[in-house]
Amino acid sequence: MSVEISSFGCYSDSKENNREISLYTISNENGMKVSVSDLGAAIVRVIVPDKAGSFSDVVLGFDRGEDYLKNPSFLGVVIGPNANRTGNASFRIDGREYQLDVNDGANNLHSHKDDGYHKRLWQASVTEDGCGVRFELTDVDGGMGFPGNKRISVVYSLSQNNELKLHYHGVSDRKTVLNLTNHTYFNLEGHDSGSMEEHELWLGASCYTPADEGSIPYGDIVPVKGTPMDFTEFKKIGRDINADFEQLKFAGGYDHNWVIDGWDGKLRHCATVKAPGSGRVMKVYTTLPGLQFYAGNFIEDQTGKGGAAYGFRGGLCLETQYFPDSANKPQFPPVIFGGDREYDSVTVYSFG
Questions:
Q1: Mean pLDDT for all residues in the chain
Q2: What angle do CA 318, 56, 24 make, to 5 degrees?
Q3: What is the structure's pLDDT at 12?
Q4: Which of 153, 162, 214, 291 has the most CB atoms within 10 Å of its CB?
Q5: Alpha-carbon gap, residue 155 to 268, rounded angstroms
Q6: Torsions phi, psi for 207 (to 5 deg)
Q7: Planar angle of CA 320, 228, 316, nearest 5 degrees
Q8: R_g of the chain, CA atoms, integer Å
Q9: In this predicted structure, what is the pLDDT of residue 16?
Q10: For 304-325, how does the pLDDT look when each residue is reduced to its tens digit (9 = 90+)?
Q11: What string of H, E and C letters represents the secondary structure of the chain?
Q12: Cα–Cα distance between 217 and 85 in angstroms, integer?
């Protein structure tokens, strides 16, 4: 196992201070490589073999750190302090209302599109065992509208079994909302392979949270059986994605929160993706209660790594999370952390 550090560009902050962006490449003895950057704690490359032993990069991203300062589709980055959507861009804690940036219709998406954790330069260090990289940042009370002075970390580590582990931790000196996720887009045929609609998906989720036209959950937990939302058996993603079904019409395809069966806070297998051409398989495990499956319905046309053209449904996201708008839905698992309640979660992406 090794970690190599290289230059990945230049970061200019609002005070015009220029700092180097770094790229950390973790390699195991099987030849798998994972490159992560201190800008946005982004997963930049995941290089894994196919059924014939040929290696390819299976995540969408950019060749320069500076491009992650634009990144309209949030490729590869950590979202925080609150991932996904908050209805009416506000929430209440102990009777006090907190107003967030209104950036997605009347709602809030991913905390703040310019100031969120995905645009921050994190402090980075190689873990003591040499198997990963630790990223840390601090966030002030009132930042982006969220209460509490916060300390956040995410550790990426790679095993000899081709498992990429993401361990998140967060503390706050006041009650606040914390719901961290990673927004990597996967295409197991290769990042430059176009549509991933032929991929097959299984989800360990017999229910989901239907949402309105603004993708804010109504608050109900509804069975998937008998609907196009059912992935309890392997199914091609493209089979039902354009079905005459209100939820799919609202979101332009799949972009919903699935409720993980049997959630108890322990690491649980929640998803498997298979690519028919390459034979690659990715399994997802998490300690979190929800999984946002997003089929890339709104990926903006853009140039990615190696000049690749990225666009409509060119990758899929499996974002482990607390449910969207949980701060306003007391019937959902609680996202209020701070004081004695620390945020801690683990997600694993396992490749075969």
A1: 97
A2: 75
A3: 82
A4: 291
A5: 19
A6: -140, 160
A7: 40
A8: 19
A9: 62
A10: 999 999 999 999 999 999 999 9
A11: CEEEEEEEEEEECCCCCEEEEEEEEEECCCCCEEEEECECCCEEEEEEECCCCCEEECECCCCCHHHHHCCCCCCCCEECCECCEEHHHEEEECCEEEECCCCECCEEECCCCCCCHHHCECEEEECCCCCEEEEEEEECCCHHHCCCCEEEEEEEEECCCCEEEEEEEEEECCCEECECEECCCECCCCCCCCCCCCCEEEECCCEECCECCCCCECCCCEECCCCCCCCCCCEECCCCCCCCCHHHHHHCCCEEEEECCCCCCCCEEEEEEECCCCCCEEEEEECCCEEEEECCCCCCCEECHHHCEECCCCCEEEEEECCCCHHHCCCCCCCEEECCECEEEEEEEEEC
A12: 9
The pair of structure tokens assigned to 298 is: 């709104």
Per the CB < 8 A criterion, the answer to whether 19 and 10 are in contact is yes
Model-wide pTM > 0.70: yes
CA–CA dist 226, 203 (Å, integer): 15
pLDDT band at 14 (very low <50, low <70, confident <90, very high): low
Catalytic residues: 183, 319
Q: Which of 102, 115, 101, 103 is nearest to 40 (CA)?
A: 115
Q: What is the mean pLDDT of residues 322-332?
A: 98
Q: Using CA atoms, how far apart are residues 16 and 140, in angstroms rounded to an integer? A: 20
Give the position of tokens 């230059």. 7
Task: State the Cα angle at 196 between 287 and 246, rounded to 5°.
Answer: 75
Say how many CA atoms lie within 13 Å of 24 toward its Cβ: 28
The rounded Cα 55 to chain-centroid distance in angstroms is: 23
Of 32, 22, 43, 67, the residue nearest 318 (C-alpha): 43
pLDDT of the residue at 17: 75
Count of CB atoms situated within 10 Å of the CB of 165: 18
